[in-house]
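Technical annex B. To support the medicinal chemistry partners, we prepared a structural model of the target in complex with nicotinamide-adenine-dinucleotide, based solely on the information shown next.
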Amino acid sequence: MPLKHLAILGSTGSIGVNTLDVIRAHPDRFKVVALTAAKQIERLAEQCIEFQPAIAVVADADGAAQLSQLLLEKKISIQVLYGPEALVSAVTESGCDTVMAAIVGAAGLVPTLAAAKAGKRVLLANKEALVMSGNLFMQAMKSGGSELLPIDSEHNAIFQCLPDRFTKNPSVHLGVEELWLTASGGPFRDRALADLAGITPDQACAHPNWVMGRKISVDSATMMNKGLEVIEAFWLFGLPLEKIKVLIHPQSVVHSMVRYRDGSVLAQMGQPDMRTPIAYGLAWPERIDAGVAPLNLTQLSGLSFTEPNFAQFPCLSLAFAAAKAGGTSPAVLNAANEVAVAAFLENGLPYLSIPKVVEHCLNALPSASADSLETILGSDAQARQVANQFIHNLQK
Ligand code: NAD
Ligand code: MG
């Protein structure tokens, strides 16, 4: 395999660190040419010292000065940039052919879209980018002639269970009847909604099976994560919404499934370790060692699957409603959720207010056609404003 040149957007996060872990074991296959982070400057400096990219990007001038100083002390010369536009430069000016899109939230949209347009292979972890801009994003992939490899474990599993021809041409369904997205149900799977009033951020982030960033951990607790993933699957695989199902599977061994017309159901199984889908995306169509322990089926106590209880997870219902409404509604859903989750993590918004904020924004901002990036970013900004105002009123 020819050497791949990688830009990693969000290299200091959970997905970014796992990506570098896989890359570290395969220096003959991968060269890191750009690393980006928002605020964790020391961690980024360590990564720059180890992987020596051409470009490093941080959020602001202070961070850039701090990073430059840390690199100077080690006599390492790397171009240090900052700000949202520099994230696009990390994609378009670093000489990369592959982009790991692992920024959390809407902040990842513009550079990920730039990667799609520029014809880079996109390894997509940043599901929020696709949720916001599905149609536009898939068009950009087409016009850029690039390959989109899903990194989200469920979508990666489905990608692995689909015939190759299908993945290259999502309009040909080749007997696919349904996609089954599995969900662990998060830390509150067996608790009544009414019991969750006093939940703290640390309780919500204590996921039973996966170690992840704090925003996606809260999304897993509310099951907004699965809702975002339904919308993600809709755009990635081109199936009608009614054919995308959610199954609660507490063991997180089956990462998702495809049901075919002839009665076959194909599942992808493995440890709950993101290095598996990351390695798959990095090396596709080859397979490489991901550093993941083999799955021992004889040690499993059983696998169970149940229907989700929508009344227990209002965020899941809201996501389905936004998916059905289409247009700008998924962008509104996503922005409202980002604001609500940040307020829960940082400003004491009660856990049970998260769906209330999202519902309020969806009602206040009816769906419009999402035909341009400007419209989508406009809806995102509007939803943030409405969400913040609503939270402010709740907290008065
Ligand atoms: P994280 O919080 O651990 O890391 C986020 C990264 O994004 C960090 O490097 C951070 O510096 C950067 N970042 C945050 N805000 C930014 C901004 N405004 N501008 C530029 N950079 C910014 O998150 P994570 O858990 O690694 O998740 C990353 C993405 O991958 C999310 O979209 C998440 O939904 C998706 N994902 C994560 C997992 C997982 O196991 N962690 C699994 C599936 C999908
Ligand atoms: Mg997932």
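Notes passed to the chemistry partners:
The chain has three domains: 4-151, 157-272+300-310, 326-396.
The chain is about 45% helix and 15% strand.
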